[in-house]
Recover the amino acids of this structure.
């Protein structure tokens, strides 16, 4: 499976720049979050995006690899793994109730990628203050399967209303994972990180679309 | 101990003590290792490793469902190993409840030929639309062990997790394994309680040129090492 990263910047309704590079980004945490679902097994000591070790519990793997983040600081609810009761549980108070802590995320650091990374080095926060970007909701689209290829796309829009310029040099994907029996606690994990060189300038008032195209070929 | 290196340029001797890969930088895929050995003496007759080539449509579709947390209101139609389209989802509603289900489970018990690594004798080259192994070699011809898993690990460039399964030839004759696959389960919608039914889906199918000959009484060990290279 190969993955391509496309960055498109827009200003005054016009495409200003478009570039595509092969992503080199899938990290060990992708497999950490895949291990529970495929093996029906728990995994201990997996660092979340804040570096805190978590146990990914086998009984609550439904959210593993999920990137369905809403926009910006929008909270959202999800249900825990079905284990008889089917009760609802929210994300509140766990540090992941901000849409910008899931899905495609941006940063300003150009440190090379290694397989074990817990987070972007310098993530751009969601917001309107200096150095911030507004994170839109995640999109998944473009499923296409025609032998010998298959693909889909993950996309997110970011807008700069900070009053200044921001140069993006790293892009990543944060995914969710549950800790505790039946997933009472949900944390986020970095499953992909790419360095963008040279960086992409987003001036005040401009929009950036970031698309990961996930592609397989037989 | 004898170890044979096959002639194909993409095949090399397995060294499971360290992470080895033939994947390119940026690639997410799998290495396929196989070993034929005598369980009585431990003597290895053949031991090879190659790049697994063939993630199928069902893999990319299930990955979509997983990443999007697809609900039963907008399920993904995915064809199962019986060649039947199923409305697969990760989150379901029914009976006044909303709940989530697992996807991608390959945790087969011994003798289970609906999950985990599966072996067959078909030789048709894989296509992305393959729904199942072409000609399955049944349990009791080759005894399928329980599926096992090695936890994720990484070196400076490559991360991986490993699926391993043993197949013991109890047929009384030689068996040639030409194809290998990975089956996983996933839930699809149902109109009756509990509103979900588990189905089985083929996510990988590989054909080994020339096949793997497993003499009677010998065991075939297969590793799929799922990898990502930065």
């Amino acid at each position: 499976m190969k993955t391509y990263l496309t960055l498109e910047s827009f200003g005054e309704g016009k495409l200003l720049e478009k570039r595509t590079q092969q992503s080199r980004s899938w990290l060990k945490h992708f497999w950490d979050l895949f291990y529970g679902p495929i093996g029906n097994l728990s995994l201990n000591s997996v660092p979340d995006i804040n570096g805190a070790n978590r146990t990914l519990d086998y009984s609550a793997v439904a959210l593993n690899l999920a990137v369905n983040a809403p926009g910006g600081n929008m909270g959202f609810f999800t249900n825990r793994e079905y284990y008889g009761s089917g009760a609802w549980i929210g994300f509140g108070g766990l540090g992941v109730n901000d849409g910008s802590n899931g899905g495609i995320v941006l940063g300003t650091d150009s440190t090379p990628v290694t397989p074990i990374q817990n987070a972007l080095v310098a993530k751009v926060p969601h917001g309107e203050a200096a150095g911030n970007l507004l994170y839109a909701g995640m999109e998944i689209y473009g499923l296409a399967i025609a032998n010998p290829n298959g693909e889909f796309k993950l996309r997110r829009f970011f807008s700069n209303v900070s009053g200044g310029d921001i140069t993006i040099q790293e892009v990543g994907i944060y995914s969710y994972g549950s800790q505790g029996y039946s997933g009472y606690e949900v944390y986020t994990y970095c499953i992909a990180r790419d360095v963008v060189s040279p960086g992409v300038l987003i001036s005040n008032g401009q929009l950036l679309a970031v698309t990961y195209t996930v592609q397989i070929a037989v | 101990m004898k170890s044979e290196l096959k002639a194909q340029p993409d095949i090399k001797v397995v060294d499971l003590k360290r992470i080895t890969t033939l994947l390119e930088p940026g690639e997410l895929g799998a290495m396929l290792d196989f070993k034929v050995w005598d369980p009585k003496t431990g003597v290895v007759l053949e031991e090879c490793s190659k790049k697994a080539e063939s993630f199928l449509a069902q893999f990319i579709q299930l990955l979509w469902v997983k990443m999007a947390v697809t609900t039963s209101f907008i399920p993904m139609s995915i064809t199962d190993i019986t060649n039947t389209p199923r409305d697969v989802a990760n989150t379901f509603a029914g009976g006044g409840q909303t709940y989530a289900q697992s996807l991608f489970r390959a945790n087969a018990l011994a003798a289970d030929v609906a999950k985990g690594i599966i072996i067959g004798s078909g030789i048709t080259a894989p296509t992305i639309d393959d729904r199942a192994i072409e000609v399955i070699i049944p349990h009791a011809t080759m005894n399928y062990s329980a599926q096992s898993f090695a936890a994720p690990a990484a070196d400076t460039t490559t991360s991986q997790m490993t699926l391993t399964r043993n197949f013991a030839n109890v047929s009384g004759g030689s068996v040639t394994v030409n194809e290998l696959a990975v089956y996983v389960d996933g839930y699809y919608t149902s109109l009756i309680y509990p509103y979900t039914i588990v189905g089985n889906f083929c996510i990988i199918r590989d054909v080994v040129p020339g096949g793997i000959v497993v003499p009677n009484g010998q065991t075939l060990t297969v590793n799929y090492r799922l990898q990502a290279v930065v």
